[in-house]
Write a structure and sequence with these properties.
Layout (H helix, E strand, L loop, with lengths): L1 H22 L5 H24 L10 H20 L5 H10 L5 H10 L6 H26 L8 H9 L2 H14 L6 H25 L9 H24 L1
Helix pairs in contact: 1-9, 2-8, 2-9, 3-4, 3-6, 3-10, 4-10, 5-6, 5-9, 6-7, 6-8
Keywords: Cell membrane, Membrane, Transmembrane, Transmembrane helix, Transport
GO biological process, one term: transmembrane transport
Pfam family, one: Mem_trans
């Protein structure tokens, strides 16, 4: 328990370091955008390769991919219902912010610091999450708001393959399904890049952290928090009761 607390303190210290450097004027939120590109295109894919290099693919665990998709769809529908009387921009804001999970940039680095054995399962869930974040969420929201009337699976698939995170997940899932071991030399090259993901992700969150909130968005933000906390409570209940 002491080690877990120490790891948590270390991670939040990284966030505070990023926030502090922004407040001191040494860095800005724009620098966070640059870091985000580095993380999504370089360090996060490398971390995924490292985390899944020894994964044993089990049919039952693959259901986590579908579960993530279903949960995200449910979040979008609930967010739409909660903001049904609001304007379209606020509805869009609620549906985008109220759905999906920040797994690659937060949950994986967080869990990796004290429970690395759970990373393969979290990664499978994140694969389903990536399907929605890389295009599925946008398509569904546009259908709900009647901004899209045609279904183009080719474009959706292309958008998914343009996502480095989803593509690496897919490749690693195939590689481990056929039980192919990645060369040790390759993993040795990827390791220092992947290990940098935790610090860069936490530091980036600190750069984006902002406690100021426009008054007219307070209700929407509260609704989003209620939605997310409700989902979290359901997860905890299902984990320990079902």
């Amino acid at each position: 328990m002491g080690q877990i607390i120490l790891n948590v303190v270390g991670l939040f210290s990284m966030i505070l370091l990023g926030y502090g450097m922004k407040r001191m004027g040494l860095l800005s939120k724009a620098d966070g955008s640059i870091l985000s590109k580095i993380i999504l295109n370089v360090t996060l894919p490398a971390a995924i390769i490292l985390n899944l290099a020894q994964m044993e693919v089990q049919a039952s665990a693959l259901s986590l991919i579908l579960i993530a998709v279903v949960i995200t769809i449910g979040q979008i529908v609930i967010a739409y219902w909660m903001t049904r009387k609001d304007s379209n921009p606020l509805q869009q804001f609620a549906m985008y912010c109220g759905s999906g999970f920040n797994i690659g940039n937060f949950a994986i680095p967080f869990a990796q610091s004290f429970y690395p054995l759970g990373i393969p399962l979290i990664s499978l869930f994140d694969m389903g999450n990536s399907i929605m974040l890389a295009g599925g969420t946008t398509v569904l929201i546009e259908y709900i708001l009647k901004k899209r009337t045609t279904f183009e699976p080719g474009k959706i698939l292309l958008n998914l393959l343009r996502s480095p995170t989803f593509t690496v997940y897919l490749v690693m899932l195939i590689v481990r399904s056929i039980d192919w071991q990645l060369p040790t030399a390759f993993l040795g090259l990827v390791q220092p890049i992947g290990l940098a993901n935790t610090f860069l992700s936490m530091f980036m969150i600190g750069l984006f952290l902002d406690f100021r909130l426009p008054k007219h968005t307070t209700k929407t933000v509260i609704n989003i928090l209620v939605l997310r906390l409700s989902c979290f409570s359901c997860f905890i209940y299902c984990r320990y009761r079902l």
